[in-house]
Every structure is written in C-alpha cells, then in structure tokens.
Amino acid sequence: MKTNRLLITLGDACGIGPEIIAQAFARGQANDCCVVGDVAVLRRALLQLGLNLPVVQLDHVAEPAPPDCLPVWQVPGLLAGLAELAMGEINAAAGAAAAACIRAAVAAIQSGQAAGLVTAPIHKEAWAAAGVEFPGHTEMLQSLAAAADGKERSAGASLPPVRMMLANDELRTVLVTIHCSLRQAIEQINQESVLQTIVIAHQALQRFGMAAPRIAVAGLNPHAGEGGLFGDEEILHIAPAIAQARALGINAEGPFAPDTVFMRARHTATHAGEFDLVVAMTHDHGLIPVKYLGVEQGVNVTLGLPFVRTSPDHGTAFDIAGSGQADTSSLLAAIRMARRLLQA
Questions:
Q1: Domain span including residue 280
Q2: Are strands 252-256 and 299-303 parallel, antiparallel or unpaired?
Q3: CA quadruple 155, 160, 161, 162: dihedral positive or negative?
Q4: Do 149 and 51 share a structural domain?
Q5: If you average pLDDT over residues 254-271, what whole number do you get?
Q6: Does 210 lie in the same domain as 147?
C-alpha cells in the first residue's frame, strides 16, 4: 500500500507535546498527519489552549480523517487516566505511554500503513521510571527498525548504524556519539565510528539532492588536539577516518577545531557556509551550536532508518507545560522536513 501518511507520536502526556500537536492541527498545518496517542490527552490539550477543534478517533492510522479535525489513533492498551496526570511532573505512566506510542507507530509504518514519523518530545527520566531501557528516541527506533518480529532488541544487541542529525536553515550537524556520558563518548570514538558517521551523513545529503556534499569533521580536543599536545584522538582515529572517506570519493575535510568550524559552516544571507554539514564527535559539541541559533526552527532527523523520522529540537518543557505558552514552530519545521524527505 503506497502512502505518504505521516504519524505524530504523543510524546510525554505531562509535557508540551500534546499542546504543540494541537496547535499544529488547529493551524491547518498537519492535515496529512495522524496522531498516535491518547484521545483524552489531546482533548485536554485543546481545552488548555482554548481551541475548538473536534478530536476524531480513527480505527487505524491509514483511515481517512474528516477535514478540520484532530485525528487520533488510540493506541491499544494505554493506561487509563493519562489525561488526569499532573502537568509538568515526571510520571512512569506517561513514560510507558510515550514508549507504547512509538512502538505502535513504527509497527504501523512497517506494515505499510504510513510512511514517516514525527515524534513529540519524551522525558528520559519518565522512560527510566517506566523501565524503558533505551536512553532516547534514536536508540529505540534503531532497535525497532532492526527487529523482524516487531519487538525491539536489547540496548546492547548488535544493530545497524543510525546517526542523529540536527538541522535548521543555517547549519546541519551529525553526531558520532549520542546519549551517553562524556567519558563513554570518548571511549566510543574510533576510526570505524567516525568513518561510519561520515559515510551516513554523505549518503543522507545525497538523498536530499546534494550531488557532492561538503562535509567538515570537527575534532574532539581543544584546537583539534594541536598536533597531539592536547590529545591524540585526532591523530589516531579522526584524521585516518577522514582519509578513508576521501578515498571513497567523499568530500570530507578536517579535523577542524570544534570552537570555530561551526561558524565556518553556518549559512546566512550575508555568509555562504564553507560546508554543508559538520560531523561532531559528541552530543553537546554538535547540538549546542544548532540550538543556540534557535530551537524554534531546529529539526532532529534520524539517519540510517528505513523510514523517515524527524522531531522538534526541544524537550518536554515541564516548566511551561499546560500553560499555553509552548511554541509549535519546531514541530511544524519537523513536519515540513519529513514531507520533504518523503519526496526526496
């Protein structure tokens, strides 16, 4: 069954996910989407926002929805009472429901009922409280995508490689390491992992329409190690990976000092970026520059999955959940990016 239907997962019911989803539909900018979640939670979000939009419960995610509504596929087996949970608080029930929505959405995509996924923010502590073993969306989606039987493999199992890309109109960055301690991240950086990241990033940009993307590779250490004075990871792992990538015909350069390479890659109306993408060694090295430019337009894209997945560039924002202050811009950017990728 050929479809371009996008699914939006609920996220944490106690965070801003339901609010930004409700806003997106109320603005008429999510009409080709279906929410995978809980009807009562979405009705509560609309009530909190003072929006008069009917919530329509669908029997399955591919079912056509009436115009001017918020279509929701009620995930079977969700705990009752999610809409009664306190806003802005960590709750294991909300964590379990968020994980269940992701599993159900991926299963629907794998069965051909939908083509892509936009995920609303989850709260990692709520996941942990619910016993979800994965530290974030990326790791769970990697496991689910690899599972032939529809059940995710354990976090330590051998899985096909995926990478996190964060992008906005000015900057793109792809991470070698994701959700782990900084000490663990450094231990995970080797020639193979860096090369794999460069290759995945190159292939992704080619799918986005760039014939010969320009990739900058950031170093790990201050001043990219300064010739070994401040660390030797650049000499032992990063530079050899870049050389291998270039031997494969990939236009990769570096390693560059992490404190300046993002400025060189940034594209603005007055400055054409020198690079199309920066490969960063660790989570914060890569994400701080993009998020500093504004989370409202940032989009997280998971590279390496057999389906499209994007998400907003922010978390659950418990401090403003339920107040009506949440900005839906990043979710709308994620929806636009998903549509673009489906057409690539």
A1: 169-288
A2: unpaired
A3: negative
A4: yes
A5: 94
A6: no
- What is the rounded CA–CA span in Å between residue 36 and residue 321? 20
Number of domains in the chain: 2
78 to 27, 53, 155, 199, 262: CA distances (angstroms)? 28, 23, 23, 39, 43
120-156: string of b/e by CB count within 10 Å (b at 16+)?
Answer: bbbbbebbebbebebebbbbbbbbbbbbeeeebeeee
pTM summary value = 0.86
pLDDT at 2 (0 to 100): 63
* Angstrom distance (rounded) from CA 105 to CA 9: 7
| pLDDT score for 150 | 47
At residue 148 the predicted structure's pLDDT band, cuts being 50, 70 and 90, is low
What CATH number should be reported for the domain holding residue 92? 3.40.718.10
Q: CA torsion sign, 65 to 71 to 75 to 78?
A: negative
Q: 274-318: per-residue pLDDT in tens?
A: 999 999 999 999 999 998 887 677 899 999 899 999 999 889 999
CB atoms within 10 A of CB 340: 13
Structural domain includes residue 299: no
pLDDT score of 68 more than 80: yes
The answer to whether the beta carbons of residues 133 and 154 sit under 8 Å apart is yes
Is the confidence at residue 153, as pLDDT, over 60? no
